[in-house]
Amino acid sequence: MAIAKRIVLRFPRRLVDRPIVSCLVKDFNLDFNILKASVTPEEEGLLVLEVSGEQEDYDKGIDYLTKTGVRIQSLSQDVTRNEERCTHCGACITICPTGAFELEPLTRQVNFLNEKCLACELCIKACPPRAMELHF
Ligand code: SF4
Ligand code: SF4
After folding, report:
1. pLDDT of residue 63
2. What sections of the chain are H helices per DSSP?
3. Which atom of ligand 1 is least distant from the CA of 89?
4. Whose Cα sits closest to atom 6 in ligand 2?
5. What global pTM score does this model have?
6. Distances (CA, A) of 102 to 50, 67, 94, 111, 121
7. How far is the CA of 69 from the centre of ligand 2 (A)?
8. Ligand 2 pocket, 122 CB below 6 A?
9. CA nearest ligand 2 atom 8, residue
10. Ligand 1 pocket by Cβ (under 6 Å)
11. 57 pLDDT tier (thresholds 50, 70, 90)
């Protein structure tokens, strides 16, 4: 069965320069599209990928990544917005790799579309009044 999933990978510093993700194509027949790539201040690599291919290949690829030392984002995490804190400054809009923030042109309010959120955590540090919260 063919699938397409969006996942968040976190690389320890020792793996940041290694071409681990290209093995997904070469060894596991998977396609990927990089939605966001960054290195955090702690020098941890962060990649948000859309991965597609056969479920069996996907499972093997994820297993390979995990064994190499890559942390795959736990799906049990959820990011919410504290509406009382949000000042609608818009700082989160360009940072979010999945377009989970939308500016309403008339009101200049920033809407948060939780269903698009992957819990990559990028907006949490970027939000000046710390309105974005991570829950486990
Ligand atoms: S960065 Fe924070 S305060 Fe600014 S619009 Fe986004 S959630 Fe609201
Ligand atoms: S955690 Fe924030 S930046 Fe990451 S996908 Fe969700 S809303 Fe976007």
Report:
1. 93
2. 22-26, 55-68, 122-126
3. 4
4. 117
5. 0.64
6. 21, 37, 10, 5, 17
7. 23
8. yes
9. 96
10. 81, 86-92, 110, 127, 129, 131-132
11. very high
Taking a C-beta distance cutoff of 8 angstroms, is the pair 99, 116 a contact? Answer: yes
**What is the secondary structure of 104-135 as a DSSP string?**
-TTT-PEEE-GGG-----HHHHH-TT--EEEE
Ligand 1 geometric centre to CA of 89 (Å): 5
Torsion-angle region of 66 (φ positive above 0: left; ψ -120 to 50: alpha; else: beta): alpha
Alpha-carbon dihedral sign for residues 2, 71, 63, 27 = positive
- The per-residue pLDDT for 74 is 56
Phi, psi for residue 46 in degrees, rounded to 5 = -130, 125
The Cα–Cα gap between 19 and 65 comes to 11
Q: How many whole angstroms from 37 Cα to the centroid of ligand 1?
A: 21
Q: How many CB atoms lie within 10 A of CB 2?
A: 9
Place of tokens 């500016």: 103
